[in-house]
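We give the chain.
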Amino acid sequence: MSDSTTRLPGGEPGMPDLRGPMRFIWWLMARQRGRVLSGALFGSAWMVGLTLPPYVLSRTIDDGLEAGSSGALYGWCGVLLAVGAVNAWLAIMRHRTMTRVRLDATYRTTRLLARHATRLGAVLARRVAAGEVVTIAVGDVRLISQTLTMAGPGVGAVVAYVVVAGLLLSISGLLAAVILLGVPLLAVCLGPLLTRLQGVESGYRDQQGALAARLADLVGGLGVLAGLGGKDVHARRLRQDTARLRDEGYRVAGVMSWIQALAIGLPALFLACVTWLAARMAAQGDLSVGDLVAVYGYVAMLVIPVQAFIEGGYDLGRGLVAARRVLRFLTLAPEDDGHRSPVPGPPRDAVLHDPVSGVSVEPGRFTAVVSAEPGAAAAVLDRLGRFSPSAATWGDLPLDAVALSEVRERVLLADHEAGLFAGTVRRAVAGRYAPDEAAVTRALHDAAADDVIAGLPGGADAELLAQARNLSGGQRQRVRLARALLADPEILLAVEPTSALDAHTEARAADRLRTARHGRTTLVTGTSPLLLDRADVVYFLTDGTARAVGRHRELLARNAEYRALVARGVDEPAGPDGAGGVAASDGAGGVAASDGAGGVAASDGAERAASPDGAASPGPDTRAPGAPVDTGPLDTAPPVTGDLA
């Protein structure tokens, strides 16, 4: 048993041979040489052991019954019993060993797929549908592991075939010649069918992957489809795809039916021919009765190796198809660094800038991006997080010149629909970090998820279903936010981190998010005034480009389009310029009153608003009570009763 096999459950699967499907299957066998060799030895010994009972029976008849010797009869019967017991043990060991071989191949291939999916990261969703990944990880991996059965019964079938031919040669050269020529003839008859099977099986697997992808899309967007009235359209397409898969299945079944019929019929016909020939030889006195029984037993036993040949060829054909699909996935190129020699990243005080939109993320500041098109705001974060090609810069360096590993280590893009694996809440929040109780508790508090934990049996140790389906949308969003906060990246890019929360919870989450990220670089998207008012600077995008920059209250007073997008129908007092003055909370929980000039005052006097000429204008620090804030231990302002514009 190889060391790699022993360490597989907790170690790496190794570097696979991706030069072809047959090389990949051979690599899976080479990674567990000792176990495969044991399976081949047990399989060969078991197959050869099946040839012994006919020989023992022939000796029992000739030496015991024909000669009338009771001692010989009982002696050979005892040998027959011992041979049966040994064969039973060999069969058990062969099956156990080959099961371990198949399981090792299954786990190793699955680990390879999971490792490569992690390397692909965000590229994966753009290149392979989720349903296709599931089909590969479940169906194709199983078919590949089944192919490794050839290492046990397959090798044993070859050895048994040679042994039977040798035994028949000792009895009759004619019978041995028939055996030696007949079995290859069976393989020639089945060869074209096995080749045909690879073609139809490949089409079936591709169609199955496409249908699985469509099903995954339908399940994920069922609520949207119902709201848009598109269920009937997609139902028709699903029926068409299902019909095509059914037709491909019929084609596969047609070829398989011929292979399975011939796998049973041809060996039976072969057995009948050899038995007829041996019976004629016995009638003519060329064979004894014991030899006739032995020949029948040898040929009957030979049906098992022949069927092993056929099944091995069948498994190999399907395994090659599955291996091609796995290799197609494993050879998907991850996002490269864009440069042959990536450079180290800039210092921590470097500005992250997106020239397409004009958004600049200043170090240590809480920045927000607002757009009437959520996709445009999310695209900014994708470019700044280097999940899509861009000309973004980080300090004096092009972002794509920095080593991708360093970008991933220092910049975290937190999607509000990011996946959540099944497991405990603690594990979901901790992610790749050790689930430290204090850190997890603090992260959940910072994400305003205290009530989520309090309402679950077991608290942070409560079990979550896949994608946390046993939580509401707002609860899932806060768990995702807690995970991002616990990671504590140098730069946090959060896509609509509070969009699914009610106003009261959102106010708490916004306050705690700002407090938790104080002094750290943070960029969020969204249109909620509760979140935007906590930002140091807000970028308002139109057609994907920043058209206004400033504090939330300044933009409310100066930009009617911005006000219409984020005010959410709240009545606002009109200022002298007709823009309306709006009271809004500052980052610490206070509210700034109107400055009386038609605008809104900033909270700290250090912020800037975009003027028509692009210059920044400071605002005085005026505060008024009445902003909704959290009353948790991290808050510094009193509870409120007023509305927040």
